[in-house]
C-alpha cells in the first residue's frame, strides 16, 4: 500500500477498472471495512455482555485474563455509544482522507504548497491539530477533573487574587494575595475543578461533535445532492423541495422543543443538528455536481455501460470532493457554536464537560474569577477562527478556478 | 405575467412548507410525554390521590383522550385561527405573551438590522477599494473576529468590562424606561453592538470579494477616464452591482443570527424579548408557550426565506422563472 517510487507520471490502479459494474471494491473501502470490525465487535460485546454498571474495558480485561496489563496502562474506560460512533467516523476520516493523501504524494504536495501561502490558515491548522491531539489523548492522560470545594476559585499561574475570595490557597500567600500554581495552570472553577483539564476534556466533546455531525451531514448531503443532479427530472425536483423544507427549519428553537419533550443528551444534539443541517450542503453539492455531470467523460462512461451509481461513485463524487470538503469545514463552527450556546443556557447534557458548560458555570463569578469564563471562551473562539481560516485556505488550495486570496 | 406567477408559486410553496413543519411539530408533540401530565400525576401522588385518575383528568383537560386525527384537525385549526392557547406561566393568552415580547425584541433588532445593512456594504466596498493595504487587513481581521467570536461569550465579556468594571451601562435591563430615551439607547448599545459585530463579518466579506470584481471592469475604466469623482464612481458603478449578490446572502445571514444568537444575547442581557420568553417557558415547562414560540420562529423563518427569494428576483431581473 505505501506508494513505491512512481515509474510513470501518475499511477493508475487498473484492477479498479477491471469490473466497473460490481460492488465497491476499492482497496481503501476494503481496509475501512476491515478496521471497523474490531470496533463493531467491541460495541456488540459492550451491548450484549457487559452490564450497565460495569466499565467495558475492566470487564474485557477480566474476560481475557489480562486485567493486570490493562490496569497497568490505565485502560479502565467505559466507552458510550457516542464514542463508538466517534471512532467509526475517525476511521472514515483516516481511510478516505489521510490515506488517499498519502497515496497521491504529487497532488498532496501541490495542495500543500498552495495551502501554505495562507499563513493564518497554517496557524489555524496547528491549533486544530493541538485540539485534535488533546481531545484524543487527553482523556487517557488526565483524569476527569474532580470537585473539591476547598480549592475553588484558585487563580491561574502567574496571577494573584485577593485571599478573601479563595477558601484555601494552594499556592503561596503574600501580602494577603493568593498566587496561582502550576498545579492548576489555568486556575479552578467554583467547585474546585481544574480549568485546564476541563478544557482538555472539552476538546474531546468538540471533536466528537465536529467529526460525527460532519460525517452525517456529508453522507446525507452528498447522496441527495449528487443523486438529484445526476438523475434530474422529478427526482431532482422532489429532492430539492425536501431540501427547501429542511432549510426552512428553525433548528435551534426546534431543538429546544425536542429537548423539552425528550430530555437532553449529546447524541440527541448531534442527531438533531445533523438531520437539519444537510440542506445547504445538498444544494451546494447539487450545483457542483450539475456542472460535472455535463462533462464529456460522463457521457462516455454512460455509453460504455456504466450504471448511474457507478458514475456517481467513480466520477461525480471525486470531482466535487474539493468543494464538499471546503463547505463541510466551514459548517463545523456552526455546530460547535450551537452546542456551546445550548450548554450555556443550561439545557445541554449535564454529564458532558463541554466548553459551553464551563462558561455557564463561571458566569456568576465573573467579576472576581474571570478566568473560568475567559479560558474556555478563548479556546472556543480560537477553534472557530481556526476552522474559518482553514476553510478559507482550502477553498483557495483545492479549487484552482476559485479566485485566490494569495494570488495577487 | 410570468413574474407574478413565479411570486404566486413561491408564496404558495411557503404555505406548504409552513404546513409541513407545523405537522412535524404535532407528530413530535404527540409522540412525546407531556410534562404537564407527569406533573399532575406527581402532584396527585404527593397529595395522596390516585395518579392514574389525575393523569386521565389532565389528559381530558388538554383534550388528549380524543383520537389522533381529531386532535390533529383541532391543532391545525387552532394554529390557523391564532388560538394558540393559554400560557400558565405568563397567565395570559400565548399570542398576547408573544406579542408583548416581540415589542422588546424589535427594540434591538431594528437598529441592529439597519446598522448591519448600512455599514456592511459600505465598509466592504471601501475595503475592496483599498485592497491589501493595512486598512483592508484591519477590516478583514475585524470581519473574521466578528463571526468567530461566540456572541454570548462576547456579550458576557463586554458586560463585565463596561457594566461591572467601568459602570458605563446598567447591568440589569430596565423595562420602565421610555422607548425613545437616552437610558434605553445606553442599555441597548451593548446588545446591538454584539449582534452587529456578529452579523457584519459575513456581509463585509461578501461585499469585499464581490466588489473587487468590479474595480477593474470596463465601465469603471470609462468612468474614471471621463473624470467621474471617485466617490460617485464607487457609489454608482461599484456599489450597485455589488448589492445584487449581497442581497441574496443578507436575509439568510440575519435570519440565522436572529433565530440563534439573539436568544442568547437576550438571556445574557436580561431583555424580556422572544428568546428570553422561549427560554423561561422551557424552564417553567409551559407547553403552550414553548409551542407558540417555536411556531412564531417557524413563521419568521419561512417568511424570511420567501423574502430572500423575492428580493433576488427584484434586484436581478436576469433570473429566469422557468426553472422552478
Summary of the model, kept short:
The complex is a heterodimer of chains A (408) and B (324). Chain A is mainly α. Chain A has helices at residues 15-18, 27-48, 56-64, 67-72, 81-103, 105-116, 119-141, 195-231, 233-248, 251-262, 266-293, 296-303, 308-344, 355-362, 371-398, and strands spanning 160-162, 173-174, 177-179.
Low-pLDDT windows of residues of chain A:
20-24, 403-408
Q: Kindly state the mean pLDDT of chain A as a whole number? A: 77
The overall strand count of chain B is 2
Gyration radius from CA atoms of chain A, angstroms: 25 Å
- Which architecture of the largest domain in chain B per CATH? Orthogonal Bundle
Structural class of chain B: mainly alpha
Strand content of chain B: under 5%
How many helices of chain B? The count is: 12
CATH topology of the domain at 116-147 and 190-407 in chain A: MetI-like fold
Amino acid at each position: 500500500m505505501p506508494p513505491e517510487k512512481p515509474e510513470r507520471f501518475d499511477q493508475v490502479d487498473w484492477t479498479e477498472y477491471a469490473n466497473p459494474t460490481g460492488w465497491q471494491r476499492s482497496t481503501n473501502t476494503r481496509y475501512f471495512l476491515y478496521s471497523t470490525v474490531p470496533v463493531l465487535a467491541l460495541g456488540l460485546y459492550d451491548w450484549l455482555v457487559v452490564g450497565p454498571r460495569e466499565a467495558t474495558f475492566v470487564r474485557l480485561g477480566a474476560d481475557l485474563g489480562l486485567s493486570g496489563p490493562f490496569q497497568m496502562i490505565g485502560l479502565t474506560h467505559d466507552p458510550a455509544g457516542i464514542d463508538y460512533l466517534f471512532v467509526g467516523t475517525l476511521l472514515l476520516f483516516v481511510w478516505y482522507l489521510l490515506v488517499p493523501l498519502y497515496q497521491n504524494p504529487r497532488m498532496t504536495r501541490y495542495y500543500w504548497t498552495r495551502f501554505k501561502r495562507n499563513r493564518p490558515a497554517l496557524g489555524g491548522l496547528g491549533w486544530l491539530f493541538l485540539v485534535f491531539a488533546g481531545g484524543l489523548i487527553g482523556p487517557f492522560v488526565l483524569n476527569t477533573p474532580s470537585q473539591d470545594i476547598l480549592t475553588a476559585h484558585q487563580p491561574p499561574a502567574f496571577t494573584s487574587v485577593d485571599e478573601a475570595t479563595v477558601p484555601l490557597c494552594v499556592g503561596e500567600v503574600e501580602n494577603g494575595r493568593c498566587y496561582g500554581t502550576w498545579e492548576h495552570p489555568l486556575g479552578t472553577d467554583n467547585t474546585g475543578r481544574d480549568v485546564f483539564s476541563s478544557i482538555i476534556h472539552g476538546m474531546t466533546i468538540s471533536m466528537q461533535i465536529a467529526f460525527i455531525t460532519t460525517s452525517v451531514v456529508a453522507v446525507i448531503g452528498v447522496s441527495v445532492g449528487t443523486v438529484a443532479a445526476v438523475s434530474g427530472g422529478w427526482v431532482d425536483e422532489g429532492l430539492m423541495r425536501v431540501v427547501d423544507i429542511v432549510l426552512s427549519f428553525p433548528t435551534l428553537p426546534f431543538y429546544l422543543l425536542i429537548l423539552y419533550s425528550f430530555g437532553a443528551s449529546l447524541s440527541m444534539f448531534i442527531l438533531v443538528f445533523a438531520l437539519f443541517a444537510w440542506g445547504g450542503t445538498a444544494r451546494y453539492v447539487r450545483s457542483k455536481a450539475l456542472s460535472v455531470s455535463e462533462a464529456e467523460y460522463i457521457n462516455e462512461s454512460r455509453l460504455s455501460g456504466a450504471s448511474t451509481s457507478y458514475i456517481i461513485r467513480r466520477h461525480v463524487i471525486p470531482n466535487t470532493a474539493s468543494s464538499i470538503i471546503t463547505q463541510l469545514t466551514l459548517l463545523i463552527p456552526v455546530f460547535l457554536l450551537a452546542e456551546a450556546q445550548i450548554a450555556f443556557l443550561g439545557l445541554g447534557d449535564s454529564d458532558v464537560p463541554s466548553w459551553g458548560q464551563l462558561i455557564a458555570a463561571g458566569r456568576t463569578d465573573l467579576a472576581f474569577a474571570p478566568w473560568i469564563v475567559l479560558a474556555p471562551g478563548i479556546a472556543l473562539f480560537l477553534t472557530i477562527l481556526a476552522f474559518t481560516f482553514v476553510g478559507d485556505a482550502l477553498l483557495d488550495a483545492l479549487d484552482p478556478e476559485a479566485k485566490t486570496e494569495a494570488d495577487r | 405575467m410570468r413574474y407574478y406567477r413565479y411570486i404566486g408559486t413561491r408564496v404558495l410553496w411557503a404555505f406548504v412548507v409552513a404546513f409541513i413543519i407545523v405537522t412535524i411539530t404535532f407528530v413530535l408533540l404527540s409522540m412525546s410525554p407531556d410534562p404537564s401530565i407527569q406533573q399532575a400525576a406527581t402532584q396527585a401522588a404527593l397529595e395522596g390521590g390516585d395518579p392514574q385518575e389525575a393523569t386521565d383528568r389532565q389528559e381530558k383537560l388538554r383534550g388528549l383522550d380524543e383520537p389522533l386525527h381529531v386532535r390533529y384537525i383541532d391543532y391545525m385549526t387552532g394554529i390557523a385561527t391564532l388560538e394558540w392557547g393559554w400560557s400558565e406561566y405568563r397567565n395570559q393568552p400565548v399570542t398576547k405573551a408573544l406579542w408583548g415580547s416581540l415589542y422588546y425584541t424589535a427594540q434591538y433588532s431594528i437598529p441592529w438590522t439597519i446598522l448591519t445593512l448600512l455599514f456592511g456594504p459600505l465598509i466592504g466596498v471601501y475595503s475592496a477599494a483599498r485592497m491589501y493595504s493595512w486598512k483592508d487587513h484591519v477590516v478583514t481581521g475585524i470581519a473574521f473576529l466578528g463571526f468567530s467570536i461566540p456572541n454570548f461569550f462576547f456579550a458576557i465579556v463586554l458586560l463585565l468590562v463596561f457594566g461591572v468594571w467601568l459602570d458605563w451601562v446598567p447591568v440589569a435591563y430596565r423595562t420602565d424606561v421610555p422607548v425613545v430615551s437616552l437610558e434605553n439607547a445606553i442599555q441597548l448599545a451593548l446588545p446591538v453592538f454584539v449582534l452587529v459585530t456578529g452579523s457584519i463579518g459575513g456581509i463585509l466579506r461578501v461585499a469585499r470579494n464581490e466588489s473587487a470584481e468590479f474595480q477593474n471592469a470596463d465601465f469603471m475604466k470609462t468612468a474614471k477616464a471621463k473624470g467621474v469623482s471617485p466617490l460617485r464612481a464607487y457609489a454608482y458603478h461599484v456599489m450597485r452591482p455589488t448589492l445584487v449578490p449581497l442581497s441574496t446572502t443578507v436575509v439568510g445571514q440575519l435570519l440565522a443570527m436572529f433565530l440563534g444568537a439573539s436568544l442568547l444575547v437576550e438571556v445574557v442581557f436580561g431583555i424580556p424579548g422572544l428568546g428570553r420568553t422561549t427560554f423561561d417557558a422551557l424552564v417553567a415547562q409551559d407547553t403552550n408557550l414553548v409551542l407558540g414560540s417555536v411556531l412564531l420562529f417557524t413563521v419568521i423563518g419561512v417568511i424570511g426565506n420567501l423574502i430572500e427569494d423575492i428580493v433576488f428576483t427584484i434586484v436581478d431581473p436576469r433570473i429566469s422563472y422557468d426553472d422552478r
